[in-house]
Design brief:
mainly alpha
Amino acid sequence: MINAVAGGGTLVSFPVLVALGVPAVDANVTNTVALVPGYLGGAFTQRSDLATYATRLKWLMVAAAAGGLAGSILLVNTSDEVFRRLVPFLILTACALLGFQDQIKAWYSRYGERELADSQKHPLALSISVFIGAIYGGYFGAGLGIMLLAILGLALDDPLPRINSLKTSLSLVINVLAASFFVFSGRVHWSFAAIMALASLIGGATGGKIAGRLNPRVMRKVVVTFGVIVAVRFFI
């Protein structure tokens, strides 16, 4: 539900898997596979808001798919020890992007109005940004929605609910490509994944219905606060 509303739901499910004794890399792989139904539910309920992005959407989906696959390949070739050391830094990076999104966008609008206009006419710069974010998503996943919201918020001058629907659809593409690779990696803990898949489908559909009614600043503060707490816990 958090993924559909504001992003960052993996900040809940990933630490739970680690706490239950699943190795960090396996927990991330399992989490990615299990949460695909949640992204599907969220994307389906918010599909009407995507009409505005019809022209741009195909380029962004290609970029998201390529980045998601690249990140997943990188993950399975990372040792559990190295990955666990990277986790708090990855979480804090995503939290910082969301927490300072308004300030970054204000600065960008003031000093980069031409670049902002160009990015809306030509999708190349935005597609490259989404590709880089998708690598992160395929590699880690926690905070992917936060990162995509920040990237899309910088480039698109649209209301948050509309950008949120685009973020959810791109998150679905990234996770489907990453999960498709992970299924054959031998690192998915299927007993956990089965339970999480059903719960994420229900949560994604529920979050998609209420996403447009919530205060965006409150959404950001809640997700960022929780993300920082999780990062500190991993540091400890």
